[in-house]
Amino acid sequence: METYTAMRHFADSWGLLAMTLFFIGVVIFTLRPGSRECANEAASIPLKDD
After folding, report:
1. Cβ contacts of 3 within 8 Å, gap of 6 or more
2. Which positions, given as ranges, span the membrane (predicted)?
């Protein structure tokens, strides 16, 4: 049971911090300048052959 308690403590502290930082990174990556043009390019890929 000692291992479960240690893993639970790790997940409650550092796991939450890691997920929060990942979420903030994804939001910043999505809202960065120039991302709209890149997203529009990727969205039009399936239609390029038509």
Report:
1. none
2. 14-31
**To which residue do tokens 């639970």 refer?**
8
Against a cut of 0.90, is the pTM above it? no
CA-CA distance, 36 to 10, in Å (whole number)? 37
Find, among 23, 45, 24, 43, the residue nearest to 35 by Cα: 43
Residue 50's pLDDT band (cuts 50, 70, 90): low
Is residue 29 within 8 Å of 35, Cβ to Cβ?
yes
Query: DSSP string spanning 3-50?
Result: HHHHHHHHIIIIIHHHHHHHHHHHHHHHHSTTHHHHHHHHHTGGGTT-
